[in-house]
């Protein structure tokens, strides 16, 4: 008997262990709560890879921080060409969020 084309065999190549999953969820929830309190504020954000952005927090939803970025390091004003640039960042990948005055 031949196998149906809709039937596929799946092989798990990665699965988070329970303590890691709980830790990531805890960090995500804590950051979500913290970031939501600072919507509309200018911040500098650094992720775990060392990338840095500066902008205004627009929203945080489902583990994502939405940052309206400002031009840095000589790049042209993004609004001049395309309108506001919103950068989605994964909350649990963020290392530092600094409020800017």
Number of strands: 5
Helix content: 10-25%
Structural class: alpha+beta
Through-space gap between termini: 70 Å
**Spatial ordering of strands, largest sheet:** 4-3-2-1-5
Shape summary: elongated
Calculate the mean pLDDT score and round it: 84
Q: What is the CA-atom radius of gyration, in angstroms?
A: 19 Å
Low-confidence stretches: none
Order of helices and strands: HEEEHEE
- Which strand-content bin applies to the residues? 25-35%
Q: So how many helices?
A: 2
Transmembrane segments: 81-100
Protein name: Acetyl-CoA acetyltransferase
Keywords: Membrane, Transmembrane, Transmembrane helix
List descriptors:
33% strand; five-stranded antiparallel β-sheet; alpha+beta; 5 strands; 101 residues
What is the element layout, followed by pairings?
Layout: H1 18-36, E1 42-47, E2 52-61, E3 64-69, H2 79-82, E4 86-90, E5 94-99
Antiparallel strand pairs: 1-2, 1-5, 2-3, 3-4
Keywords: Membrane, Transmembrane, Transmembrane helix
Protein name: Acetyl-CoA acetyltransferase
Transmembrane segments: 81-100
Describe this structure as you would to a colleague.
With 101 residues, the protein is an alpha+beta fold. The chain has two helices and five strands, in the order αβββαββ. The termini are far apart. The model has no long low-confidence stretch (mean pLDDT 84). This is Acetyl-CoA acetyltransferase. Keywords: Membrane, Transmembrane, Transmembrane helix. It comes from Paenibacillus silvae.
């Amino acid at each position: 008997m031949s196998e149906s084309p809709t039937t596929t065999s799946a092989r798990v190549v990665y699965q988070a262990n329970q303590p890691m999953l709980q830790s990531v969820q805890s960090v995500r929830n804590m950051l979500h709560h913290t970031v939501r309190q600072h919507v509309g504020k200018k911040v500098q954000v650094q992720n775990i890879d060392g990338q840095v952005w500066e902008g205004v927090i627009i929203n945080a939803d489902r583990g994502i921080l939405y940052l309206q970025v400002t031009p840095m390091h000589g790049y042209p004003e993004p609004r001049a060409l395309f309108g506001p640039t919103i950068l989605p960042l994964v909350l649990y990948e963020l290392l530092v969020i600094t409020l800017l005055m």
